[in-house]
């Protein structure tokens, strides 16, 4: 873990790291990665990854509308919206 | 009459005997909240609606399992029309247009939601020190942490403000604060309670559950909280038993697994003594102790700190300042809107976990970390499956020690992560587990954890309840032992 890696993953995460906190974050992340490196102690050859304790396949359901349209309520709680859309700064000139 | 430190069962009796009205109960709750303001246990109150519901109940009594019972809701559950912050600045102004299924279930059972409790930001923390709304104080002592992430819920129950609270547990967030605050807290089997309307942290680990003064009350609450929910694909459709039915089963011939790989030498001597005394109590109740081996248990914390951040970095990508929540002022373009809104909206611990998650999921590291952790997760689950072939429950201390001072885990995140050493494995394997008070060290409560087999909440509630019929640790309050 170094400054360059932290800059890359910060951008991937759409986060900006304050200059004065940068050194501490690099150090913390480095310690955490070193800590989780203990996982290499386990022999996992031929072990299937476990993604979810239930290991059930997602259920299907009939394609029927059950939910109420919350468009008005959802647009109302948006930081910026008009009658039909969420508004953001212009992306196309 | 007062409801302070009363259980749900006792309050139900008081209501049915007409010793107290529903409105008097709710008024007392809000007086108690004010008196305990220094605890900072609540973020948002629901006073007007709660008083109204209690008046309605006085005028038109209804026979429901939780009729009139005041419950504090963790601020991680969406509550329709009532601000829901998840302890974060980014949701400071968020008023959900719908309620979580578990909130609906509790309210349909008659309970009165009195407000939203403080918590570690997005449930990421073990001391309630990462909340945007400030630390919660443990009712057992000034400057002591209540644990986390459900610190506000635990403090509200421990201080006797409410008999019960809702909470969530991703790596110990119900059990660890329950232990540090001297109350009972249950994390059910993964999938027992719907996650619809719960703000997601790590979707394969998150599970809601109750906090209360007794195991008996937890059983009553669990009966109401569980349901099969079509809106959550991981919601189980297995039969839901009546969790109150088996509480009084004798423990004779029952077997308790004791993990021989667990290194207790890093704990205080007193914590170990309290734990061993409890095991003797269970033996006196007729149960026997059997040595079991969970050889991969020591890898549960590192496994968790790959899996949980990976899922968190993905789940928290939805907070972008566009559709809901807080947006930064005057962004110059869309990208700056995302980056500024997120950077201003999230605190340091949340950022740290998102960054770790992005790292372990990124190309070139995915196999070495994320896939590896999921493989170890299976080894941990296999260990439990094997152990449970021969025993009824597993016991461990809930935490490494009683409540610690605010700020004492300082700047080292790993020291804080190790707080969940004993609790995390149940989340990785999806198993139910409960923490109950089992002692007191220097006037600070301790807890013992009982882990059950998949879907077997009934057994852990049975063990917990029998312990509480023969001991009175659960009757200890910050103001002395309850009659």
Low-confidence stretches of chain B: none
The major beta sheet of chain B can be summarized as: 11 strands, mixed
Major β-sheet of chain A, in short?
none
Q: Termini distance of chain B?
A: 15 Å
The total strand number of chain A stands at 0
Helicity of chain A, in percent?
A: 25-40%
What is the end-to-end distance of chain A?
39 Å
Task: Output the radius of gyration of chain B.
Answer: 21 Å
| Amount of beta strand of chain B | 5-15%
User: What is the fold named in CATH at topology level of the domain at 1-40 in chain A?
Assistant: Histone, subunit A
Defining traits:
heterodimer; A: 93 residues; mainly alpha; Histone, subunit A; 3 helices; 37% helix; flat; B: 483 residues; alpha/beta; Amidase signature (AS) enzymes; 11-stranded mixed β-sheet; two-stranded antiparallel ribbon; 15 helices; 13 strands; 36% helix; globular
Structure description:
The complex is a heterodimer of chains A (93) and B (483). By secondary structure, chain A is mostly helical. Chain A has a domain at 1-40: Histone, subunit A. Chain A has helices at 3-12, 19-36, 71-76. In chain B, β2 (70-74), α4 (101-108) and β3 form a beta-alpha-beta unit. Chain B has helices at 8-16, 22-35, 47-59, 101-108, 151-158, 175-181, 215-225, 269-284, 300-315, 334-345, 348-361, 366-387, 413-417, 424-429, 457-470, and strands at 42-45, 70-74, 112-117, 164-169, 184-187, 207-212, 255-259, 288-292, 393-397, 433-441, 444-452, 476-477, 480-481. Helices cover 36% and strands 14% of the residues of chain B. In chain B, α7 (215-225) runs antiparallel to α15 (457-470). In chain B, strands 1-3-2-4-6-5-10-11-9-7-8 form an 11-stranded mixed beta sheet, with helices on both faces. A two-stranded antiparallel sheet of chain B has the order 12-13. Chain B is of the alpha/beta class and 483 residues long. The two termini of chain B are 15 Å apart. Chains A and B meet through α1 and α2 of A and α9, α10, α11, α12 and α13 of B.
